[in-house]
Design goal:
globular, single chain, alpha/beta, 5-stranded mixed β-sheet, about 280 residues
Length: about 280
C-alpha cells in the first residue's frame, strides 16, 4: 500500500490533541448547518449515503444527523491533525490511493479518539515485519499500550460477510457479485506470530475491523478475537482496554513502540518482495 507520507518529528501532547478535537467538534457543529459544506467534506466518503444528507436536509432525521455529525467531526479532525502536526509520526494526503487505504485512515481516526478520551496508546501503521523464514508480514495498524499490542487488520468491504474462525476462506456477497477472501483472523494470527518472534511474552490481541458499509451476516468466533464494524471501534476497544490488566509500564510501552517503529518505513524493494511472496501462495 502506498501513501503520500510526510515525516513529522514534533509530537503533540494529549492536551494539545484534545484541543484539536475540540476545534473539530465546534467546526462540525457550525458546518452541519450548511449542506453544501457537508457534501464537500464527505464527497469521497464511502461511509455515508446521499440519502442520509437528503434526510437531514428535508426531514431533520436524528439518525442521519448523528451520522453526519460524527463523519464531519472525523473528517475535520483529520484535516486539523494534519495541519497542526499530531501524535502519529506519519500522516497522509487528503486523497488516499485506494479504498483500503481510506478505511485504514478512518480506523486511525477512531483510535485517536480513544486517546482523546483518555485511553492512552501509541499508533503505528503499515508495518512490514520480517519473520524467521525471511518473508515479511504486512500489518495494517498496531495500537500499543500498557495492556499489550492490539493487532488490527482493516477490511474496507461492502456487502454481506460470511465466515467462521476455522474456515480458510470467508465469503463476500456484494449486489450480484460473490467472491472469497482469505480468513482475516488467520491472516492476523500470522501477524501476531511474527510479532511474537521479535517480542516474546507481550500479549497480542487480534482485532479485525470491517467498514460500516458491510453486514456481518454470520461470523462464528471461538476465541477472544474481536471482529466488528468500524462504527463500533471506540466502544469495543475501550471495553477491551478496561477489561485487560496492565502488563507493561510506560517505559516498556515506549521501548516496544520504538522497536516496532523501525518496520514502518519499508522501501519499495521490501514491499515488492512481500507482494511477490503473496502471489506465489
Amino acid at each position: 500500500m502506498c501513501f503520500k507520507v510526510v515525516k513529522i518529528m514534533i509530537y503533540k501532547t494529549d492536551e494539545q490533541l484534545k484541543e484539536i478535537y475540540r476545534k473539530a467538534q465546534v467546526k462540525a457543529d457550525n458546518e452541519i448547518r450548511n449542506p453544501y459544506k457537508i457534501l464537500f467534506y464527505l464527497k469521497d466518503s464511502n461511509d455515508i449515503e446521499f440519502s442520509d444528507i437528503m434526510n437531514f436536509m428535508q426531514y431533520h432525521d436524528t439518525d442521519a444527523l448523528n451520522k453526519i455529525r460524527f463523519l464531519l467531526e472525523r473528517e475535520i479532525f483529520i484535516r486539523l491533525r494534519e495541519k497542526e502536526e499530531c501524535t502519529i509520526k506519519d500522516y497522509y494526503s487528503d486523497e488516499p490511493d485506494d479504498i483500503g487505504d481510506y478505511g485504514e485512515k478512518l480506523t486511525i481516526f477512531d483510535l485517536e479518539l480513544l486517546k482523546v478520551k483518555g485511553y492512552n496508546g501509541n499508533i503505528l501503521h503499515n508495518l512490514y515485519i520480517p519473520y524467521s523464514n525471511g518473508k515479511t508480514s504486512q500489518i495494517d495498524i498496531l495500537f500499543i499500550n500498557k495492556k499489550g499490542i492490539f493487532v488490527i487488520e482493516s477490511k474496507n468491504y461492502s456487502g454481506w460477510i460470511f465466515g467462521s474462525e476455522s474456515d480458510m476462506y470467508w465469503t463476500v456477497c456484494d449486489r450480484s457479485k460473490k467472491w472469497k477472501m482469505y480468513n482475516p483472523i488467520l491472516q492476523n494470527n500470522g501477524h501476531i506470530n511474527t510479532i511474537n518472534y521479535h517480542l516474546r511474552g507481550i500479549p497480542c490481541f487480534s482485532v479485525v475491523i470491517f467498514s460500516e458499509r458491510c453486514e456481518l451476516k454470520k461470523i462464528n468466533l471461538y476465541s477472544n478475537t474481536y471482529v466488528f464494524k468500524r462504527n463500533r471501534t471506540f466502544f469495543n476497544m475501550s471495553n477491551a482496554i478496561k477489561n485487560f490488566p496492565d502488563v507493561m509500564n510506560e517505559n516498556q510501552v515506549i521501548y516496544v513502540t520504538d522497536y516496532l517503529r523501525q518496520f514502518c518505513d519499508a522501501d519499495e524493494i521490501i514491499k515488492n518482495s512481500h507482494i511477490d511472496d503473496i502471489n506465489l501462495k
